[in-house]
Amino acid sequence: MNDRVRLAPVIAVDGPAASGKGTVARALAERFGLPHMDTGLLYRAVALKLWRWGGDAGNEFEALRACDDLGFDPGDTELRSEPVSKIASMISAYASVRAALLQRQRDFAQQTDGVVLDGRDIGTVIAPDADVKLFITASAEVRADRRLRELQQRGMTAHYDDVLADIRARDARDAGRSVAPLKPAPDALVLDTSELGPDEAIAAALRLVEKRLGSPGP
Ligand code: CDP
Q1: What is the whole-number distance in angstroms between the Cα of residue 14 and the centre of ligand 1?
Q2: Gap from CA of 216 to ligand 1 centroid (Å)
């Protein structure tokens, strides 16, 4: 193990919608003092721009145009709204959109001080040489339950069956697309959080990272 691995690891966290990958990635970034990029926000930012334009998510060219000069406020609550989530899931299947967002993610991943990125294709496409690759998953039912509670906390009304159907549709789009489909990298450590609360999931992820890096964390 070299010093860079120990002191400045690149940690890739992938997984399906509402698997808890964001929670785990944020906690790892904090624990190791590393910068963190939630790559889903980039796709959401493109989706939000397209939505505000009244553009057509079924049109790859329009989606690609929305990638130009992509600036966004990560605190914009509309980024996490349901219409934007749906559009993000659709436009992320376009090869040209993925290509337009690739360099920004690679540049972030190549910072010399180590990083944490979370998304769908971090361990497979964005940072295939990452020091640690985690694939966070959970059953569709558990994820639907989490997403429902998240929506309710934000004061939205939603029904479990609709949320579950939406999660399944998103899984099918993520796993079925021809470019960068959602799948664990061959060397990814898979963590199923179906039976774990947030703190337990974070603790389990931390153990996996420390084991892979070969030393206890900071
Ligand atoms: O966790 P959730 O699926 O709700 O959202 P997210 O991680 O913010 O991702 C938003 C959308 O972008 C998803 O529908 C993914 O399909 C897509 N995405 C992607 O294709 N590749 C990434 N590296 C990150 C997100």
Answers
A1: 10
A2: 31
To 10 degrees, what angle do helices 95-109 and 40-53 make? 140
pLDDT tens, position by position, 196-206 = 999 999 999 99
Burial class (CB in 10 A: 0-12, 13-18, 19+), 158: middle
Max CA-CA distance within the chain?
51
In this structure, the residue with its CA closest to atom 9 of ligand 1 is 40
Residue 140 three-state SS: helix
Say what the pTM is: 0.92
Q: Tens digit of pLDDT for each residue in 46-102?
A: 999 999 999 999 999 999 999 999 999 999 989 988 899 999 999 999 999 999 999
Scanning the structure block, which residue is given the tokens 């939630």?
A: 38
